[in-house]
Amino acid sequence: MSGAGGMGTTRAERFATGAAAAGGARAGIGGADARADAGGAVRLDEASVFYGEVVGLSRVSLSLAPGITGVVGPNGSGKSTLMKVITGLMPPDEGSVRVLGEAPFTSHASRSRIGFVPALECFHESLSGRRNLEAAFMAQGLATADASERADAALDLSGLTADGRRRYGAWSRGMRQRLKLGLTLAGDQEIVLLDEPFLGVDPPSRRQLRQLVLRLGEAGRTVLVSSHVLHEVEALTDRVGVLAHGRLLGFGKVGELLESLRDQHPHRVRLGAAEPRRLAAALVDRPHVREVKVAGDDAVEFVTDRPDLAYRELGVLVSETGVAIHRVETLDAGLEAVFRHVTEAGSRRL
């Protein structure tokens, strides 16, 4: 099918473009200002959830803007509970949750603007992938013909057209995850929540999934990805939140979180030099150095409680030993470091 606006484009491209346009054209549920204000499309204020005496979320405050945001944490940290309160599957026991200006638990209009890709299976094993998509789109209120066309677009967007008529129960884990993302890509929901999208998926399928998630962010949607696969989140975005024991222990850009943590936690540094053993002997005498290790013939690694002092002392170290340092490398420059530092600090506070 093609109309005047569809000449020269595929069905999938029309739906992807239309979904992005729908997100920009709609007025916010709480008015235009609710979409544009600094609070973001999704906002939690001091939100808490309790399962009896177990804390699911503890006074979580955050706001999500268009683009991709990651939330990382170990199993049982509160990631799935966070997804549930944002989708409106459950209300917070304390605090508030707003999606496009309204409480999703009580607002059907708010919930209709959310696309949720759960970690658990959500399609019928006995039906084909295409029939599952048609059923899902009809459940969203589309007529049969529209649901059929949207299903074809979803298969195209996720690269599954050739397998669309095969029984879903025979599909691999990676294909199943791609189908869920295809359903979301072909929809027009502005808010997209992805709960553990890389769970149990092989590396080639992860690369395909990553591209699909990036397309959602590039389309201007507000995307929240929860995962304990830290490097996958880091490949999608540098904007992350760290959850542990239901508490949001850190939120922001990875670089900014590391900068704020740098002087509060032990820091690992690698120095490149032709005589690493002489450097190691000098480092051992520093009171702020916890651990020293010679790493091969041309490097030494050390852990310091005072990274600010350690970096300032590098010139003194060269002068004392007569060994030139030709490379300085921090080993705590990624999401793994943020996750380790923040969860360790949070556990000590709990």
Overview of the structural elements:
It is a single chain. With 350 residues, this protein is α/β, with parallel strands linked by helices. The chain has 2 domains: 4-251, Rossmann fold, CATH 3.40.50.300; 263-331, Reverse transcriptase/Diguanylate cyclase domain (Alpha-Beta Plaits, 2-Layer Sandwich), CATH 3.30.70.270. It has 14 helices and 13 strands. The chain has a 6-stranded mixed β-sheet with strand order 5-6-7-3-8-9, sandwiched between helices. It has a 4-stranded antiparallel β-sheet with strand order 11-12-10-13, with helices on one face. Strand 6 (191-195), helix 8 (203-218) and strand 7 (222-227) form a beta-alpha-beta unit. The longest helix has 16 residues, at 203-218. It is elongated, with a radius of gyration of 24 Å. Residues 1-10 and 19-38 have low confidence and may be disordered.
